[in-house]
Amino acid sequence: MSSLIEGRTGKWEVVIGLETHAQIIAKSKLFSGAATAFGAEPNTQVSPIDAAFPGMLPVINRHCVEQAVKTGLGLDAEINRESVFARKNYFYPDLPAGYQISQYELPIVGRGKLTLDMPDGSTREVGITRLHLEQDAGKSLHDQHPTQTYVDLNRAGIGLMEIVSEPDLRSAEEAGIYVRKLRSILRYLGTCDGNMEEGSLRCDCNVSVRRLGEPLGTRCEIKNLNSVRFVMQAIEVEARRQIELIEAGGAVEQQTRLFDSARGETRPMRSKEHAHDYRYFPDPDLLPLVLDEAWIEALRAQLPELPDAKKARFVAEYGLRPEDTDVLVAERATAEYFERVARSNGKSRDAKAAAYWVIGDLFGALNKQGRGIEEAPITPEQLGALLDLIADGTISGRIAKDVFAEMIETGIDAAAIVEKKGLRQMSDTGAIEAAVDAALAAHPAQVAQYHANPKVLGFFVGQVMKATGGKANPALVNELLKRKLVQSS
Ligand code: ADP
Ligand code: MG
Fold this sequence. Notes:
binds adenosine-5'-diphosphate, single chain, Arc Repressor Mutant, subunit A, 15 helices, elongated
């Protein structure tokens, strides 16, 4: 797949590395017992530790450590048996301590990898550099008062996992696929809810450009993107800005930039800060974090089947195409729904048909209703029973669409709808033959065309289906029509 950008002076390759901040699912904060629930009244979930009162000591939240290790395992990464918390010093009104507790030289998780599922069914591997634990900052509220800024510390001290990728991504599209896949894995693991609107998952995008074969160019970092769409748009416009700059004889300056989605441009925020600007040093209040081998293995044993393994199994077990499988495995609830459509009530159904009904019809209906699959108005067993009615010839595929629409509206079983509305397929040859004869008699001109133009068969199928209210068995209709058209033309 070529993803090069055409400039004025030739083709350019975009190079992207992502730093993703994922809020850990945990009841309390990383180093305090204060609650983490979203949307509470400002400053109601703040302990003296989060507010940085003098003399307060942080205590590590064991559950947050567990979540980070699980995530590391889910990314096929090295789990560091010993890691160290460091203070990252900077002044900001919503950071009362004047430093953030983070990890620097020795993060809890080292190298791992993530597989991108490309739209054509192929895959590509992206390196994960590290995952470290850190605290979130508070929030400055600029819109509460005309001349003053308020500070809400509810978010201060909440545990985050910063997940850093290698500069392995080569297009905005790949970056979008990366973020979606990472979110999917986090949600499977139950370590982050992936809710980008609420800020549980935010991305910093590092972007540079180069001509093919050249060494890596100077990068800019675009901060705090909170949707997949913005990640992709920001990369696109930033890459074009850099290409135009270089082609006009300029040079990219390493910077931290902000994306303005309304104007569709990135703007400088500050020149790039360097690690030494933060005066990192090991936090003297916290001992090195040492993990027990057996404890790590116990966590590994609890991991659920993750999207890649599920995808491989769906392809092998159900004969699905990899590119159809991606949508099914993206969310655990969807995968489970599909499997129950394909197999339930002691029946093993046509898995491809099951997949298409879920991805196509069900997703379409849910989208229209603005619901997720957890709120689907019909159970997978009900959808499976509809498939059974098609498979045993009770209804045609055409009629099944109408039955499905009514099931979605009312939640009533397929069989009940078919009985109530008299939708059983006509497989009675005599009745169908009568309809076929009537159609042929009514359109002698089209009958005469059949030899020269076999496509009129489709016209007659349409006529017969119309006359029978869509209930005639399509295979029988085709067979009878062909026979009679050959005879009479
Ligand atoms: P820092 O600590 O200064 O932010 P890192 O070396 O940790 O720098 O890199 C941060 C991110 O930038 C990583 O995701 C990495 O993949 C990415 N990156 C590094 N070099 C480049 C480059 N030349 N172009 C694009 N991304 C890059
Ligand atoms: Mg960085």
